[in-house]
Here is the input.
Amino acid sequence: MSAPSPFATGLSGRCPNCGEGALFDGYLKIADACDVCETSFENADVGDGAAVFVMFITGFLTVIPVLLVHIAFEPPLWVDFLVGAPLVIIFTLGLLRPAKGLLYALQFKHDAQEARLDE
Here is the structure.
């Protein structure tokens, strides 16, 4: 049996080894181990990578609609905030977990580890 796709497992929050168990124990906390195949996730450390990608994507997806509304209707500044703030919250909460799962699944597939000096 071939290993499941890191894109499918990461984006859906499933174990990158078996594709069945849950990767997360809570909203953003990666579980200690898979509840199906018992693969350990103790080495899980995606750092701030997911947050950086989500910030760039959210900024792009938020700025364009806010600018279009501002150019089309020339509303007061508070309307820009009224349109932009919910978009930022929705995109951030919607993208952060799949991005973190994807980064961890890719890290797991390629056996990525912290760099070490050979002595």
